[in-house]
Design a protein that fits this description.
Blueprint: E1 2-5, E2 15-21, E3 28-29, E4 34-39, E5 44-48, E6 53-58, E7 63-66, E8 70-75, H1 101-117, E9 128-129, E10 132-133, H2 137-146, H3 164-168, H4 191-204, E11 208-216, H5 218-230, H6 238-252, E12 258-260, E13 265-267, E14 273-275, E15 277-279, E16 282-284, E17 287-288, H7 296-311, E18 325-329, E19 348-362, E20 365-379, H8 385-400
Parallel strand pairs: 14-18, 18-19
Antiparallel strand pairs: 1-8, 2-4, 2-7, 3-6, 4-5, 6-8, 9-10, 11-20, 12-13, 14-17, 15-16, 19-20
Helix pairs in contact: 6-7, 6-8
């Protein structure tokens, strides 16, 4: 019999929240097959089974647990578990009857009926206890299957517990009626939103400075258009070009390609560029690795893959590790200029605005040029002003003449 323990999915992970089991008790499990979903402080990730066998018992259906805690057992069909959930003694072999789905559904329905009929002496129910929504296991499963948010329901069971009939009478979130005017809605913070808040608060406490330049995008736009013609299967964007030129600039200015820690500056031999993505679950920054070694089309392919998985909530913790620099581009929203918050422990982030046709003085005459604003935010603990300015000057040079970086 094998214990299923909550794994460490990334550096610094001390705990995680089990969100959903992808196998039911009594089901066959194969090694390498997705077993359950864990919500870490960065992503929601599927965890694969390390063993072949039958999922004998789930010790933690949902909720938070420290890394290394046993949350289930996998063994041979018919193996017996003790009363506490731990494996029974080998001296007492017993053949456990195989569970039948119909019988289990009947038991669950009976339990739901008992819940609904049980008297309640509590005050008007809110359906929560210590911040956790009270709902029966069957109600939770039905809600997951039908896309219903339990926090939007009021339970009819004892002490406001949500039971199956509450799910049956509810409509999916996508078809739910709008919140009545004047009613305040409370949206619980997800682990990712809590992490965003914590990291941005830490970033705001860092002593930073900003540097701003405008770059003529004439040649850059021509290069992007040409790259799309040559690589019709990959849509090259300005963000891809910026990632490439910033990576080349970081290789020239290695003092900017660092992470700040309390004891040292960690200098990286390669440019791992993070791309800020507005995903449904919140702002995430997947990292494109060794960008200086990639062609422009390869950068576009890596960025497309990372952004797609971010929006489908399929990133893993490895996608966020070892970033040395971040690009945040809001130009597609028509934002002309903004200041981005650094992404600790990285020392710098580049905020990119929209390309605007702008009158520019050239050789004593006024010309209309496509100009793009770039604002570099730098952690002064790691990078001095002159170093940051020199780096941004190189980025501007590469953007205005991309051939120098490619």
């Amino acid at each position: 019999m094998n214990e299923v323990k909550l794994p460490r999915l990334g550096q610094g992970m001390e705990a995680g929240t089990v969100r959903k089991w992808l196998k039911a008790e009594g089901e066959q499990v194969k090694k390498g097959e997705p077993l359950f979903e864990v919500d870490t402080d960065k992503v929601t990730q599927e965890v694969e089974s390390d063993f072949d066998g039958v999922l004998l018992k789930i010790a933690l259906q949902e909720g938070e647990a420290p890394v290394g805690q046993t949350i289930a057992w996998i063994g041979k069909e018919g193996e017996e578990l003790g009363d506490t959930g731990a494996p029974a003694s080998a001296e007492k072999p017993a053949e456990a009857p195989k569970r039948e789905p119909e019988r289990e559904e009947g038991r669950a329905a009976a339990a739901e009926a008992a819940e609904a009929e049980a008297p309640s002496t509590a005050a008007p129910a809110t359906g929560t206890s210590n911040g956790r929504i009270k709902a029966s296991p069957l109600a939770r499963r039905l809600a997951r299957e039908r896309g219903i948010d339990l926090s939007t329901l009021r339970g009819s069971g004892p002490e406001g517990r949500i039971v199956a009939k509450d799910i049956e009478s509810a409509r999916p979130a996508a078809a739910a009626a709008s919140v009545p005017a004047g009613e305040v809605e409370s949206v619980p913070l997800t682990s990712i939103r809590k992490t965003i808040a914590r990291r941005l608060t830490a970033a705001w406490q860092a002593p930073v400075f900003q540097l701003q330049v405008s770059a003529d995008m004439t040649r850059a736009n021509e290069l992007v258009a040409r790259a799309r013609e040559l690589n019709p299967d990959v849509r090259v964007t300005v963000t891809d070009l910026l990632a490439k030129v910033c990576a080349q600039a970081l290789m020239r200015h290695r003092d900017v390609n660092v992470q700040y820690t309390e004891d040292a500056l960690v200098k990286f031999p390669t440019a791992n560029v993070g791309i800020a993505v507005a995903a449904p679950q919140g702002l995430v920054v997947p990292v494109l690795r060794s960008v200086e070694r990639l062609s422009l089309a390869e950068v576009a392919g890596a960025r497309t893959d990372a952004v797609g998985r971010a929006r489908e909530n399929k990133l893993t913790t490895q996608d966020f590790e070892d970033g040395t620099f971040t690009i945040s581009n809001l130009g597609m929203f028509g934002i002309e200029q903004f200041v981005a918050v650094i992404n600790p422990p990285q020392a710098a982030i580049l905020a990119v605005g929209a390309t605007i046709d702008t009158p520019v003085a050239r050789n004593g005459a006024v010309e209309i040029r496509p100009m793009m604003s770039m604002t570099l935010t730098v952690d002064h603990r790691a990078v001095d002003g002159a170093e940051g300015a020199d780096f941004l000057r190189t980025v501007k040079t590469f953007v205005e003449d991309p051939a120098l970086a490619l």
